[in-house]
């Protein structure tokens, strides 16, 4: 099995970048988006065989893969609509959380394998999408047990120079709660704290603050969805961090400079290894 | 008053970068460091008129400005040594906290004005110092009331293309607790949490995590000093952040998606303005 006609549902940063990368490999791409202005830009890009804002019309394009690239809670609704339409062709997605998606795909009897491209930007939308966004990046597949589909998706993503890794949706959601969802939440939170307590300080923000809060410029629709969807794993991570903040605060309160120095030395050494 | 001979105490990233920038403007620079290997690299750079690891020899170089560029708690000891030697020539510093430094300078009857260049890197040491590190960056002066000295320091830093701002040491330490010391502490803490709870997740770290934790690679000596020295303002910031984390956590726990979306929308909009 390999894919010659791919339909992308959701022409934002993620869907737009996949569409451009696939089109560049000679694959025919079709687009679906509910936003007319996005469809206008999509038509203007001249990479699509067809675009539409009608669900029925979209699923009747001659697709051999349907790629869902919308925020996770909307993706679950989209999967339910596919279930109601008794859609039987291959489906995958590019959402940042995987447990709910896989559950919905199973409940709706889809021929499905989950996916997550590990590359983002703090900008969003089709106009910010890039043909090379995923070049060299990791792509995670979370299988539902359809091995022929899994292998075809592996080949597809390798063909646009992505490194494919496979894991369960539970492993995926735990890992990304730690290294993506928690940092995003804390970056929003820190920005919020400084805005409330000492907004004028922002004019002195140096490179460190800018880097630390770069991800706080991320898209509200996508991130409120992710936080809600990965609630359990995320809240566990937040609680681990809170306990750790108390430990670090106490080292400072108790003037325990030796311990503080050793901790920073350990952590900064590990960071430099990344 | 202007400076033709500047002595730099501490030839790390900060002192080394100032030495290179001043030397490039035709100012004679002299260096002091207790580390022999640093002195070797300093001699090798051929920008110094003289370097030494002896305090007495250093303060007897024909200096018209002595620039202290060592971590804050060591800087306070250095100021006490200058006090004991009844040093009367102009002195400034480049430390990241200002209240303790100014208090020490006053107690030791120095002819002093505090300073803080707003530019860092996560690397440290003379070999990472750069002539252009401070080009275009802000430099904050915290005056002790010696206006002729303050003006001369303003001119000096403008001559290497820095933007000079003046404020009190209290204003300075509050602003930087918020936008520098708090992000560094939280970045160390988050890195520590992930290392303890899910180290293998680090191999999937994308650009967001890398940016968010870049400052967690910072120097342990400098940062343990800063955290101890600005303890009061920093702990207040940490407590504000902790309260805010509870608010964000509760929005997620309570499924309050509308409020979460609005908060992210507000915060991300402000971040994009930076």
UniProtKB/TrEMBL annotation, chains A, B:
GO MF annotation: an example: NAD+ binding
Organism listed in the record: Mucispirillum schaedleri ASF457
Gene from which this protein is expressed: tyrC
Superkingdom, natural source: Bacteria
Classification via Gene3D superfamilies: 6-phosphogluconate dehydrogenase C-terminal like domain, NAD(P)-binding Rossmann-like Domain
Keyword list, A-Z: Oxidoreductase
Coiled coil: none
EC number: 1.3.1.43
Name of the protein this chain belongs to: Cyclohexadienyl dehydrogenase
Listed PANTHER family: PREPHENATE DEHYDROGENASE, PREPHENATE DEHYDROGENASE [NADP(+)]
């Amino acid at each position: 099995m390999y894919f010659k006609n791919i339909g992308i549902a959701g022409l934002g940063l993620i869907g737009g970048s996949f569409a451009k990368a696939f089109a560049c490999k000679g694959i025919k791409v079709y687009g679906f988006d509910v936003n007319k202005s996005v469809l206008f830009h999509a038509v203007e890009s001249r990479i699509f065989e067809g675009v539409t804002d009608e669900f029925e019309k979209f699923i009747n394009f001659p697709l051999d893969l349907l790629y869902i690239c919308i925020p996770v809670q909307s993706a679950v609704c989209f999967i339910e609509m596919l279930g109601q339409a008794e859609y039987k062709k291959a489906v995958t997605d590019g959402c940042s959380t995987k447990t709910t998606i896989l559950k919905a795909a199973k409940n709706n009897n889809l021929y499905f394998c989950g996916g997550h491209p590990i590359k983002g930007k703090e900008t969003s939308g089709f106009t910010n999408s890039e043909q090379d966004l995923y070049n060299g990046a990791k792509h995670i597949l979370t299988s539902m047990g359809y091995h022929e589909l899994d292998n075809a998706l592996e080949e597809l993503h390798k063909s646009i120079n992505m490194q494919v890794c496979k894991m369960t949706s539970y492993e995926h959601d735990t890992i990304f709660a730690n290294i993506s969802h928690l940092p995003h939440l804390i970056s929003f939170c820190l920005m919020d704290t400084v805005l409330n307590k000492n907004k004028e300080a922002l004019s002195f923000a140096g490179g460190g603050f800018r880097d630390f809060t770069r991800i706080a410029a991320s898209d509200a629709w996508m991130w409120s969805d992710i936080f809600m969807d990965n609630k359990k794993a995320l809240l566990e991570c937040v609680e681990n961090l809170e306990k750790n903040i108390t430990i670090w605060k106490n080292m400072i309160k108790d003037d325990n400079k030796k311990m503080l120095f050793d901790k920073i030395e350990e952590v900064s050494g590990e960071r430099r290894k990344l």
